[in-house]
Amino acid sequence: MQGDAMKYTMGRQYFDGLRYGAPFMFMVVPFSILFGVVATEAGLDLLQTMVMTMLVVAGASQFAAIQQMVDNAPVVMVLATAFAVNMRMAMYSASLVPYLGKAKLWQRALVAYLLVDQSAAVANDKFEKEPDMPIPLKIIYLMGVLTPIVPVWFLFTLIGALVGSSIPDGFGIDFAVPLTFIALFAPMLKTLAHVAAAATSVVFTLLLSFIPYGLGLIVAAVIAMAVGSLVEVWMARRQVP
Q1: Are the CB atoms for 13 and 140 separated by under 8 Å?
Q2: Over the range 122-137, which residues count as b (16 or more CB within 10 Å of their CB) and which as e?
Q3: Is residue 36 a contact partner of residue 162, using CB atoms and an 8 Å limit?
Q4: What ranges in the chain are assigned the alpha helix state H?
Q5: Cα separation of 225 and 128, whole Å?
Q6: Beta carbons within 10 angstroms of residue 115's beta carbon
Q7: Minimal CA–CA distance to 209: which of 1, 60, 67, 88?
Q8: Which among 35, 68, 117, 146 could disulfide-bond with 73, CB atoms 3.0 to 4.6 Å apart, if both were Cys?
Q9: Which GO terms describe its biological process (predicted)?
Q10: How many CA atoms lie within 13 A of 125 on its CB side?
């Protein structure tokens, strides 16, 4: 009886995750198609495109790397730009440590490989509300969130690489890139520190856009993180009696 109850609970958590992850398909589909198109137009063949998307599993850094390749940037700059854009994954991982830090090594490795913006945002919200949820159920919930995201990313990247050249220019699938990040990060701007970091990143990205190879983006990200941290420290000191 207890096993049946656990099975039902695990199934419920999986389908809860699936329910919260499903809406992201509407952004992942055009986003992944666009990457398949851009990658093949940049000179990558089908195998290279799929290997890249299945190893990296991070659309923003993949787009950044492709742009660097198109600009004939040195390999070290391609890697540095992709690394800088993906630094947010380190912050996502750190935010999940209180909830998944005691998980088995293979579980943490699986989550680390599959972690994306959408799953990090949804998981943090869920785990903050239910911090006492057992780790196996947290993993199952995350797998539910990821089911309509990661496999769909792989599939539609393949479709984009195969049929991208036949998509009309006026179809406008490139809207998915900014829409995805607006939908993800706008609700996360909950404190003055978040807003300060976001505003700083926008300002300095624009001011430093003249720097070649996208180095301005890296510098802007570092400055934004510093400003966010300073504002957070300042707010914490103000709250001390």
Answers
A1: yes
A2: bbbebbeeeeebeeeb
A3: yes
A4: 2-21, 25-41, 46-56, 59-70, 75-85, 87-100, 105-114, 117-129, 135-146, 150-163, 176-185, 192-207, 215-239
A5: 23
A6: 20
A7: 67
A8: 68
A9: L-valine transmembrane transport
A10: 16
CA distances (Å), origin 116, targets 24, 99, 121, 160, 211? 11, 17, 9, 20, 28
Helix (H, G, I), strand (E, B) or coil at 45: coil
Q: Say if residues 160 and 35 touch (Cβ distance below 8 Å).
A: yes
Contact between 53 and 154 (Cβ < 8 Å): yes
Q: Domain locations in the chain?
A: 2-173, 189-241
The one-digit pLDDT tens for each residue of the chain (241 residues) are 444 445 448 888 999 999 999 988 888 888 888 888 888 888 889 999 999 999 988 887 888 788 778 777 788 888 887 887 787 788 788 889 999 999 999 999 999 999 988 888 889 888 888 888 899 999 999 999 999 999 999 999 999 899 865 666 555 555 555 655 565 566 556 678 778 888 898 898 889 888 776 677 778 878 888 888 888 888 877 775 5
Contact (Cβ atoms closer than 8 angstroms) between residue 101 and residue 112 = no
Instruction: Please answer whether residues 114 and 89 qualify as being in contact, where contact means their C-beta atoms are separated by less than 8 angstroms.
Output: no
Tokens of 89: 């994954």
CB 148, CB 18: distance < 8 Å: yes
What does the block give as tokens for 111?
């989550």
Task: Say if CB 165 and CB 39 are below 8 A apart.
Answer: no
Structure tokens at 40: 């093949």
Residue 117, helix vs strand vs coil: helix
